[in-house]
Design goal:
This protein is mostly helical and 276 residues long. It has 14 helices and no strands. It is globular.
């Protein structure tokens, strides 16, 4: 991997894995044999962000490996509570500066809020860790974190190769292919993006983020509005408050001059995340 930093570039917010669709819920799910992590993930996926925060806060005895702190950060980001998410991640990184999962989430958040000055040292540290052999190259999450640094640095070649390695390291996991799909969209490679999102959906049929990514790829590749709208409907069936799905559906409404429909979807998204 190259060690030289590249110039900054615009970040596509929908590509950030910590940014999930927005949504509220009235009552917490009642897990039976679920672990605390599974319950929080279920709430996140369905757009019950406030519930996810509540469950994470109550799970005092959850194993540290469950990383409920990072799931809570995802919920805060979805609700537009960026300052809270930032404080939580910066505190976590201060306690464990070598933790790649925390660094990955923090890099994505800095990119989302446009703080390039805060992002730069994390990019440098990621390159240093890679060159010093401190990254486990057999673990997909570690590789994804390094790919995040490369991508946010505009280092597309290394990001692409590292995500490929992450997919090979854990072919039954979906995070790497999802990130890969968004990266391909940023590079206007819709064919490859479509393949990546379909690979995710082959393993996880209900992944709302992958459905939204596939919708965008279908539009970018051949402007297949009917197929894209079907993918958005699948995403919103899982998470009715998915901000990416609502935003893209609003875009399609504008294309057909359905201004009321577009305004309604924008209002739905902003009801959950006023900062979006």
């Amino acid at each position: 991997m190259a060690t030289r930093l590249r110039p900054p570039f615009p970040v596509v917010a929908c590509a950030l894995a910590i940014v999930v669709g927005a949504g509220a819920a009235r009552a917490a799910p009642r897990p039976h044999a679920e672990t605390a992590r599974t319950a929080v993930e279920r709430a996140l996926r369905s757009g019950q962000y406030e519930v996810a925060l509540e469950l994470a806060a109550k799970a005092k005895r959850a194993p540290a490996a469950d990383r409920l702190d990072l799931l809570a950060v995802r919920a805060r980001v979805a609700l537009g509570r960026y300052a809270e998410a930032r404080r939580a991640l910066e505190d976590a990184r201060a306690s464990a500066p070598d933790d790649l999962a925390t660094r990955d989430a923090l890099m994505r958040l800095y990119a989302l809020v446009g703080d390039r000055a805060a992002l730069a040292p994390l990019l440098t540290r990621s390159y240093e860790d890679w060159d010093a052999g401190r990254v486990d190259r057999k673990r997909a999450p570690a590789l994804i974190a390094i790919a995040t640094a490369a991508r946010l640095d505009g280092n597309w070649k290394d990001a692409n190769e590292t995500l490929r390695d992450a997919v090979r390291a854990e072919p039954r996991a979906t995070d790497a292919n999802r990130d890969w799909g968004w990266m391909f969209l940023e590079k206007h490679a819709a064919d490859e993006a479509e393949a990546s999102f379909r690979a995710v959906l082959a393993l996880d049929h209900d992944d709302p983020d992958a459905h939204v990514g596939l919708a965008r790829a279908l539009l970018d590749r051949r402007y297949d509005v009917a197929a894209a709208r079907a993918e958005l409907a699948r995403a919103l069936a899982v998470n009715p408050r998915h901000s990416g799905a609502l935003a893209l559906r609003a875009e399609l409404a504008l294309d057909r001059e359905d201004f009321a429909g577009a305004a309604a979807d924008v209002a739905r998204a902003r009801a959950t995340n006023p900062s979006d």
